Amino acid sequence: MALMTIGIAWTLPNTVLGLLAGAAGLAFGAHARFERRDRALVFHRWPWGPGGAMTLGNVILHTGDSLDSPCMTYAHRAGLVEEPSVALGDHERAHVYQYMVLGPLFLPLYLLCGGISVRNRFERAADRYAHTGRGWWPWPA
After folding, report:
1. SS3 108
2. Measured between alpha carbons, how far is 65 from 101 in angstroms, rounded to an integer?
3. 8 CA to centre of own chain
4. What gap in Å lies between CA 115 and CA 108, rounded to an integer?
5. Where are the domains positioned within the chain?
6. How far apart are the C-alpha atoms of 14 and 111, rounded to whole Å?
7. How far, in Å, CA of 34 to CA of 49, rounded?
């Protein structure tokens, strides 16, 4: 529990960005709910973006109604593998864990690793975690 609290505090600057974005969405129909299993405050029906979800610290901005919805992995969308879909919430939970370890370093490292793409080790790790429940850390042990 102590490590969880430290992780939440360490990523607080990112979480504040998520809270500001989520609060802006409230005026346009979004609603918020704390989801314990995802370790995050989730803003559902967030009104901007192409669909899916985005994580900022301990906040998940989700354009739909449920994080239990299936989504394709980045590798599948790139045509690299024939994988079944994964649960969107499992993928985003991996990002929450990544943020809690890396704190304010997450966003610069994420962007340096390729941003939103199959090449990004953060996205590949989140897909791996969504498939197996393990392996959310983006660098091999």
Report:
1. helix
2. 28
3. 14
4. 9
5. 2-132
6. 14
7. 21
Please check whether residue 89 is in contact with residue 52, taking contact to mean a CB–CB distance below 8 angstroms.
no
Kind and range of the H or E element at 97? helix 88-102
Tell me if 21 sits within 8 A of 32, measured CB to CB.
no
Rounded to two decimals, the pTM is 0.94
**Residue 5 CA to its chain's centroid (Å):** 18
Residues whose CB is less than 8 angstroms from the CB of residue 71 and which lie 6 or more positions away in sequence, other chains included: 52, 85, 86, 87, 88, 91
User: Pairing between strand 70-71 and 86-87?
Assistant: antiparallel
| Site of tokens 């901005």 | 61
Measured between alpha carbons, how far is 48 from 25 in angstroms, rounded to an integer? Answer: 8
pLDDT, tens digit, 9 for 90 and up, residues 43-52 = 999 999 888 9
pLDDT digits (tens, 9 = 90+) for 97-136: 999 999 999 999 999 999 998 899 999 999 999 999 999 9
In angstroms, rounded to a whole number, what is the distance separating the alpha carbons of residues 20 and 18? 5
Angle between the N-to-C axes of helices 2-10 and 12-26, in degrees from 0 to 180, rounded to the nearest 10:
70
Locate 140 and state its tokens: 């091999």
